[in-house]
Amino acid sequence: MTTRNKEPLPMGVGRVTTGWLVFVALALVGVVIGIVGFVVEHNQGMVATGMRDLGTGQGATWGMYISLVVYFVGVSFAGITVAALIRLFNIEKLRGVARMAELLSVVALILGALAIIVDLGQPLRGLVNLFRYARPQSPFFGTFTLVISGYLFASATYLYLTARRDAATLAERDSGLRGFFRFWAAGYEDTADQRDRDRRTSFWLALAILPLLIVAHSSLGFVFGLQVGRPGWFGTLQAPAFVVLAAVSGVGNLIILAAIIRKAVKAQDRIRIGAFSWLGNFLMLALFAYLYFVVVEILTLLYQPSVAEQEISEALLSGEYAWMFWGSVAALVVPLGMLVWMAITRSWKIGWLVTAGVLVNLGAIGKRYLIVVPSQTHGQLLPYEIGSYSPTWVEYAVVLGLFSLGALMIALFMKVFPIIELEEKQPAEHEEVTA
Amino acid sequence: MTRRGIVTTVMIVIGVGLMVFAYFFGAAPWCANGVECSNPRIEWSPLIFVIGVITAFSAAIYYEVAKDKKE
């Protein structure tokens, strides 16, 4: 620990470039716009948004914010799943994307929590009462206890622990961030014993996180799937479809992030095409599964629907929401075709994979919106008029702010910690400790 | 078992215990009467559940960070 090395920190840590500054400035502008939108919403009340009461108000009480809660929590799924699979099955080719996958999970969960907060008319009151009165009979109990609290904490713990070795390595170098690295390393000594302990902890944490993750995502699906009085939502497919679409959007995001970071930190040797082909195959399988759910859902909806369900299916397939529905389906089918082609010809192209990642995320956002909104505007069992929902500039501003905040968090992380795991060196033999 | 192992196990047991208590007894999911069971039997039960989750996962941090006495 006494050797001081003056060479620069790896992966561009601690070095600010013009491109990074421009990116951060743009993200900051987006965050400020989001804050302005939220302040307007908070001061004027929810009337500043496009959300209105169901039925009598002919509107939707859940709009873009809740669609994005589901989307962000979905994105977090793949991050931690991929990270856990890497540790559980020791998939070496994915080692380069492990940390960014963990970071993606944490960032997406923070954004998901913020999206819930901005959806609450009185955020503080809502947060206090959830912790005070939430009932386990409600799927919301699982949503905020398991998803937002437990899952976020577990992911952050995972990120922290798996990065300690790198923190200890960087703490040996003379840099302005040395104190931060030492704090993160928390006395880490790179001995064989410590590495064994790391592997054990990572394995058990991964094993604990995976079921938590499935339960958490299913409980989010149950928020919709258990609402017997809301045609279009009630159904057994909601929970598994939520999990699968989460995998789609999350893996898509991870591919985009990995490609950007690979180029930004010039890590072609650390994130090889093999990692992208693995992610591409994973995305392809998830897309097949999800499109199967979509087909089953449409057939069930069309076979012998009730009046309310018929109205929803008409609105989705040929009415007000048809452009978004078919657009979303196309945004999932086209990338699937691209992925199948690349898998058959065994010629994985990063550019095509990134295009597929962008498309599936657009499709996922569209599908999340279509899960949330049409059943409120068109799914009335009582004889109310059909409603409508149009987001206002306030909601668009807040959404821009959320995405910008996510980009900002990742950009800042990249400058204080290596976004890709450092390559392992031989552990020190002299500091064996008793386990 | 080392002190590290004992403390880690105790933290996991306490965490899971808090979750079980908060979910099955504090918040009472199987209460039959709708109005009486509207709120948890014990206020802040959901918070206790969350603390249980955090305690259980904190065991991993303790297990990794805690120092063993050198021989």
Task: Write a short abstract of this structure.
The complex is a heterodimer of chains A (435) and B (71). With 435 residues, chain A is mainly alpha-helical.
Care to describe what's here?
The complex is a heterodimer of chains A (435) and B (71). Chain A is mostly helical and 435 residues long. Chain A has one domain: Formate dehydrogenase/DMSO reductase fold (Up-down Bundle), CATH 1.20.1630.10. Chain A has 15 helices and no strands. Chain A is globular. The two termini of chain A are 22 Å apart. The C terminus of chain A is likely disordered. Chain B is mainly α and 71 residues long. Chain B has one domain. In chain B, 63% of the residues lie in helices and 0% in strands. In chain B, helix 1 runs antiparallel to helix 2. The longest helix of chain B is centred in the first third of the chain and has 24 residues. The two termini of chain B are 15 Å apart. The mean pLDDT of chain B is 83. At the A-B interface, helix 4, helix 5 and helix 8 of A face helix 2 of B.
